[in-house]
Amino acid sequence: MAIAFPTNEPHLSGYFAPLHAECDAPNLPVTGEVPAGLRGTYYRNGPNPQFAPRGKYHWFSGDGMLHAFHFDEGRVSYRNRWIRTPKWIMENENGEGMSGSLASRHLTDPKLLELNSTVANTNVVWHGGRLLALEEAHAPFEVDPVSLAPRPRDGTAADVRWFTGDPCYVFHPMNAFDAPNGSIVCDMMKYDVPPLFPGPDGRQLSSGAPVASLVRWTFDLSGKSGAYREQPLCDMPGEFPRLDERFAMLPYRHGYYCSGDISASTKGDSLRSGLAHIDLATGQVAQYQPPAGDKCGEPVFVPRHASADEGDGWLLSVIWRAAENRSDMAIFNAQALAAGPVALVHLSHRVPAGFHGNWRPAG
């Protein structure tokens, strides 16, 4: 028999509380005007446990749930679905949670361990004509891009170069590319100590919430030095860095991120409330800050058209409205972030705090 969700777990309450139903919401109400050229689907993935876990819950262990916002000629519709992984199916058939979390794997039912199933809760990408739900520990899981239903499955070590530096932790890169001089450049959000995880002895590694900041690492492949060079890019803390994906693995100018820090979520809250746009050519940073208590999700860039200049387009972000416990899809002019959204698409329910999403253009 399924047990009740605990009320004292911070990542199972408030903004992080899981949804318990799937729904379809056509023709959502809009404030402002959705850009006519915005045609396609925004997909967002994140943890949403179907049942309460055995033992203590960790945010990274929840079943993946996809949220899809479909844009067409100024209208927006919404659909959410759990990703029907082997784990989800077995627990659904048994009517209860059968797995422990990251810190309590010993509580997982042996039958579930045999499946070695993904939870597919971290990202969702369009690749090779297929929509794939991702989680770092397992192979991708394919889903139908319209119904979100599951789809059935159908160098050498000598090339490695090692570089050494001071201990730190990185969840998310913004971009990486080959510089004209042959060096490799990597931009990322760097923590001095890992957030969300205890140390080897079980104690927290920091008395406060660790903060990430945007840095650039440059790896010189022409020299024999095993060191890399670090350059701070912005002192505004943040997480979930993104870019105009047409410039992924290429030299680029514009980056976007949540201005704040996911590691402050240990009490069910989060500092990642706003959005930031950094111009890497000038170093200037523009910021949007929502009303007090509201929280912005990862920004996703959509070009105005296929041949638009880098950074010419829109930013999409799902914003949690704390006072109403529901969410809006916010659409920003990416070149005028501080001016606020050009349109807000209103949901009547909350999209829980999650991880990553991507845009797939129509056609």
From TrEMBL:
Its cofactor is Fe(2+). InterPro entries: Carotenoid_Oase (IPR004294). Binds 1 Fe(2+) ion per subunit. Keywords: Iron, Metal-binding, Oxidoreductase. It comes from the Bacteria. One of its GO terms (biological process) is carotene catabolic process. GO terms for molecular function: carotenoid dioxygenase activity; metal ion binding. Coiled coil: none annotated. Fe cation binds at residues 172, 356. Belongs to the carotenoid oxygenase family. This is Carotenoid oxygenase.
